[in-house]
Every structure is written in C-alpha cells, then in structure tokens.
Description:
The protein is mostly beta strands. 11% of the residues lie in helices and 38% in strands.
Amino acid sequence: MCQPGAAGSERKIPQRLNCFSNRLEISSFSDPPSLASRKQLFSTLAIYRVAPLRALRLVFVTPKATRARFFPSRVIHGVCTNLAGPFRGKSHRFSARSATSSSAMAHEEGDTPEDVFLEDLRSERSLRWVTEENARALSAVAGPGGDVESDPLFSKLRAIYDDKKKIPNVRLRGNFVYNFWQDDVHVKGIWRRTSMADFKTDEPTWETVLDVDALAKSEQKSWVWKGPSFLDYGPGDDEHRVDRCVVKLSDEGRDACEVREFDVVTKRFVGDVGDEKDDGSEREKPFVLPSSKSNFCWIDRDTVWIGYDFGEGTMSPSGYPLTIREWRRGQDLSETTEIWRGQPGDVVAAGSAYWDKGVRYHVWYRAPTFYDTEHFVKHPVTGDMMLVDIPSDFGFNTFADHVVVHCKSEWKVGEFNFKAGSVVAHPAADFINGDRTQFTTLYSPDDDRCAYAGSTETKDYLLVHTLEHMVTRVYVWRFVSGDKNDSQKSGAFEYVKTHVAPDCKSFGASGVDSDRSNELWITTDGYLEPVTLSTATAPDLEAVTPCKENTAWFETNGMTVELKEAMSDDGTLVPYFLVKGKDVVANDVPVPTVLYGYGGFEISMTPGYSATVGESFLAQGMCYAVACIRSGGEFGA
C-alpha cells in the first residue's frame, strides 16, 4: 500500500527507477531504544545492493566509518570492465569516470589523513588495524552466548544472504544466457550458462563454463571474478558467432586485474593444454595481460587495443592507463604500437571500437577530471582524429547511425536551445562533419524535479528512462533504419509511447539481445514487494510475462509505504519514503525509526525490497525512512 503524504505539503510525489547503477548503503544509527544486539549489529552493517535485483551481501564497517566514496559506473562497449547491474541493455558510454583515492585528494589539500597508512594493504600496521577492528565489530554484535552465531538475528540474516532462490543476474550471449554465481559451496564463484528457454523454467540446468574456486586452488591464487568482455565479429558470416572473450581476474580483490583470453566453446583458456586446433596445428598464442589496472578492447579476432602500465608516463596520477596501444596476436607487449595518449594530469585515457547495429565506431577519450571527458573520433574523409564538439561534462553515446547526447547543462547550438537534462539525437556522420541542424529531442525535462535516468535499447527501440517528481517514466522511441547503401539517408527516431510506473515501485526495462530482438527484461520491486523478473516485447512494456521472483522473507500485513516531504533549512521540500513496520499504523504510537539518506553522484534513492531491513526492523514494529536528498539525481540535472 502506497499512500501520498507530506510534511508541509499535500502534493503527492511518487517514485523513480534507479535503473542501471550500483549503490552501497550504509545503515548506521547510534541509539535505537531497544533490541540491544540488533542496535549494535546494524550500527556496523553495510548492505551492498545491486539494482535492480538488489542482491544483498553483508559486510561490516566500523561505527566511526571509513570514508565511503561512491562512483557511478560507466560502460565502455568493447572495453573489458566490470559491468554493473543485471539485464543491462547495451549502453555505449565512452567516458570512464575514475577516482583519485581519498588520501591523494587529502595530499592535494595539504592535509594527510590519519588512516593513510591503510594505503599499504600488507603492512604490519594495516593488518594489525584490520584484526583490531574485526574484533571490535564482532564483539559489538555478539549474542547471549558471547559469539555472533548466538544472536537470534544471525541465523535469519544468514539464511537471507545464502538464499539460493535469488534471481540470477544473466546476460544473453549467442544462444546462451551467462551468469556468475556464488554461494556457500562456490565461495569464489562459478561462471555458468544455460539456454534462454531453460533459464525461464523453475529449475534451470546450468553448465559450468569456468570454476573460479577450482582455478584459484590449482594456481594458488585468491582469484576474484571481475567479468568477461566478448569479441563482437560484426556484420558478415560470423555476425552471430560467440566464442572468444577475455576474463578479468583480480588476486585478492585488488583493483589491478589479470586479463586472459578464454574460449567459451572449448571452455578453456586460449593456449592451454587441450586447446589445440582440430587439425592438430600449433595452439594460438593468447592475449594475456599481467596484473595491472588496464583497459582492453577487441578490434577483431587477432587485434586488440590495450591500456596498460608500460612504465613512466603511461599511468595517470589516479593509477589508470593514459595510453592506448594496438596489440596484434603473437606480438610481445614490448612490440605494441602506441596510437593514443592522454595528458599527464588526466584521470584516465582510453579508446573504444565497436559495432552498433551494423555501424562501426572508433572513439578515443581523455578524462581531465572526474566529471569531464573529451571524446575524439576519426574524421570521415581525412581519417584524422578530431575532437567531438560538445561540452566536456555531456554524455556522448550512439544508437545505430545516430549520436545521442545527454545535456548536463543548457546547450545553445545552432538554432536550438536545449534545457539542462535534455537528451537529443543527431545523424552521426553529419554531426561529426559539423552539422547541427537535424536534432531530435528524445527527452526534455519539464522542471528541476525531472531527470534523465539512463537509456536501454532493443533491436528497433530506444527506451529513455526518466525520474519525474519521483515517478519513473519510460519514453519509447522506434528507430526507422536508413538506407545502408546511401550514407546520405540516415535513419530516424519516431516517438511511440510513454510508460508510467506504479507509485512507490521501482521499474526497469532493458533489451535481452539488443542486436537481434525486441525482447525485454522487466524488473519491478518495492519496499514491501520482492523483485520480480518478467519478459516483454518492445514497445509494449505493460504486457509482461512473469519469469522469476525473489523470496518474500517477511510478512507485510499491517505495513505501509508513504511518500512525504520534509522542508530543509533553506525552504527546499525534500521527498522521503516512510515504511511503517508491523502494527505501527494500528497502534498509532511513536516507534524507533531508522533514517537512511544518501545524496551524491546522481545516484537516486528509489523503492527497493530489502529482506534484512524487513526482518530486522519492520517485522519488529519499527519504521524505516529513506531521504531522497540533493545531489542524488532526484533534483534533475
């Protein structure tokens, strides 16, 4: 039940989708008046929630809280990155946002933080600090028996985190959906796959592609899975061929990763014993990058672009690559050719090459700051590298033969004047040549409580997600392809419809295979409703077929969800969700309330099912409030 309400206003403000981002929630409060063991547990509890499926993992943080930094994920198509968020449609985001460490920032400000020694992970002092903090945290959550396990809440939370019925996070590649899975048996995890038809059944039969636990044991490494990047062959006889990828593995979870070429047909690393060709000829020499912060982008089966630590001047002050080199199969790393370099003070510089619905793109970029990125493309006639003429804080993506630009501020260009937060499209070839006369406005916010929330795509449709006064709206655009034999006749976008999500619910839609079909994954949930995964076919987002649902861990009878507003000191009305626990409404008496708020990096707080919050607070007759504070994205661009 979702009710409108307000503090200082009666205006109803419904909900918004936080569609494609990770978020780390730190639930921390100092003095709930009862339930001592739970008070202590949740004063040191952090919940990692991956939207929209919100797979929960428990970790402990100290009450005086190490500074938490939150960085929005960027997807670089063709670059091997750790993709965030399940069922994400292909999203070409060329800019990579990286972060300078807190200690480095403090040094720039001339103030060395007291915990800078933790930068050395293996120092005696760091390890001693970890031991002491672990002991303090475990002591704080100890139950009647003096240990954590004896707390009555422990077994309930453990069951939630070990739930094997949670919806797997999958991506379709070729004829298989792939999933990385961890549980009490597969602690480091297995990369597995099954057919789409089998995945939709109640009990899919999974085939293991790579067992990370077994790999770690055989190689005596503490491998942590960081994800795959597949080779896209592009148009032609091999258009739908899916066999090669690289996987990124991190020893002990460090930022630095080893990149290794893998064959999903043979289910072996390329070059391993047993990977010989059918004709018995010599094994291929694989692409392997030793452990480093790196970038990797497929050009074709035997050529890649890499960003890697090649020594002085090749890594940024933030520790990320500043150069791109072309690497051909069989070459030593020392023989690679540098083709792109950022500036010495940049956060990162890299390049991306990919196919987008039959159109080939080569894009290079450099990020002078966390929020500013300059994009470069090849001139269509001369082949020279040229700067894309848009403000450096704008988003720059593509769809087929169009560029798609997200205006982070007002943009006056030619005869057009786009509002901050607008999303516009333009034929790519003409745009690169300097033309600014053929814009299509895909989204224009009505006011400062309306914001672009990302886009996903299918074969023929672009879905523009927005947040408008805390309501999720999805604007559906059909793309009519141009004449592939005439570069002067580009495609065009046609508006189809707007889908409005229910109040106090989260809604996400993304393409199952954006190159081959219009099928969609649809995810929905709310504070009192577990995640449901369904399928639909664009443009009909309403006609869904339920596929899977997460476990409902707590009884919701007698609980309600309200959307209210609170007035800040400067007069701004700030929306917040108030979830009233068991019998709170019926008893009508004050109860302990956990208040959570996060505002930063345009990561909005939207309704989401949390079994741990429900079991620990709501089922105990408490309330849970989530403030949608400024800088989180709820207040527009």
